[in-house]
């Protein structure tokens, strides 16, 4: 995948379930996303983690098996002719995941891990780096530089909120134009910025009722892309259900956002 795929008159969208749970549901989500984004002329990258390495409790769901999940992501690509993105957590996973997906995503907690960034860069895939909840937007220049210094100019930067207190995140929208100055596409991760981590139950909470608010503001300040985790039934999702958008609400939300985008 080349970054030119993401360029259009509209913003682009990274969307899908938090984690690959099973094949049939994944394909149904991808099919619906494809129908909606084709209708609205929004470039789509299908998102699904092949494994969740960062969980609150040891008994939390992590995945269905690395190879099995990655093969499902490849099937999404082949069936619907859309690029795919997944997270990697350790350097050795870069080459493995690159065989199946088009974009390698660096989780926010790992955005300073030099070896991981270099390994992702050397695959030649697009590298989406999420801004650490503990970093300023200005600091992301150096994360991106680790990728470009490794010979890969295909970088995306993603804002996902900043830690505020012990159990909440805030979005400083100044970060979007700041990171755009570095010359890379900038994405607003809407659903993760509404997480409420470190809950007493050991299960991350969220404020999905504010998805539209965060999304509207992101479009208004010039985000190039939007990241939205979505699921047919968020309550039953095996990861991040508390902050996901119900799949049947996506088209209505995108329609509103495109009107804001057009007005600008």
TrEMBL record:
GO biological process, one term: lipopolysaccharide biosynthetic process
Subcellular location: Cytoplasm
Keyword Nucleus annotated: no
GO molecular function, one term: 3-deoxy-8-phosphooctulonate synthase activity
Protein EC: 2.5.1.55
Main localization (coarse): cytoplasm
UniProt entry tagged with the keyword Transferase: yes
Catalytic activity: D-arabinose 5-phosphate + phosphoenolpyruvate + H2O = 3-deoxy-alpha-D-manno-2-octulosonate-8-phosphate + phosphate
Superkingdom of the source species: Bacteria
An example Gene Ontology CC term for this record: cytoplasm
All copies of domain DAHP synthetase I/KDSA, residue ranges: 9-257
Record key words, sorted: Cytoplasm, Transferase
UniProt family annotation: Belongs to the KdsA family.
Stated name of the protein: 3-deoxy-8-phosphooctulonate synthase
Lineage start: Bacteria, Pseudomonadati, Bacteroidota, Bacteroidia, Bacteroidales
């Amino acid at each position: 995948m080349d970054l030119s795929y993401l360029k259009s008159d509209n913003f682009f969208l990274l969307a899908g379930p938090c984690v690959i749970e099973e094949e049939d549901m994944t394909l149904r989500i991808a099919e619906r996303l494809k129908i909606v984004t084709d209708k609205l002329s929004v470039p789509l990258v299908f998102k699904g983690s092949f494994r969740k390495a960062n969980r609150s409790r040891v008994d939390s769901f992590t995945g269905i098996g690395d190879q099995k999940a990655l093969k499902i992501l490849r099937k999404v690509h082949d069936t619907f002719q859309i690029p795919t993105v997944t997270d990697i957590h350790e350097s050795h996973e870069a080459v493995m995941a690159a065989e199946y997906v088009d974009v390698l995503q660096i989780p926010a907690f790992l955005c300073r891990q030099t070896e991981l960034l270099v390994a992702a860069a050397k695959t030649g895939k697009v590298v989406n780096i999420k801004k650490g909840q503990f970093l300023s937007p200005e600091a992301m220049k150096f994360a991106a530089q680790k990728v470009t210094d490794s010979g890969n100019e295909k970088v995306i930067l993603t804002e996902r909120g900043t830690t505020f207190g012990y159990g909440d995140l805030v979005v400083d929208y100044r970060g979007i134009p700041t990171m755009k100055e570095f010359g890379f596409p900038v994405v607003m991760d809407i659903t993760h910025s509404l997480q409420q981590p470190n809950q007493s139950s050991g299960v991350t909470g969220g404020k999905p009722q504010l998805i539209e608010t965060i999304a509207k503001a992101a479009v208004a300040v010039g985000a190039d892309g939007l990241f939205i985790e979505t699921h047919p039934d968020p309550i039953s999702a095996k990861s991040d259900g508390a902050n996901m958008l119900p799949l049947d609400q996506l088209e209505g939300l995108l329609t509103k956002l495109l009107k804001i985008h057009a007005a600008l």
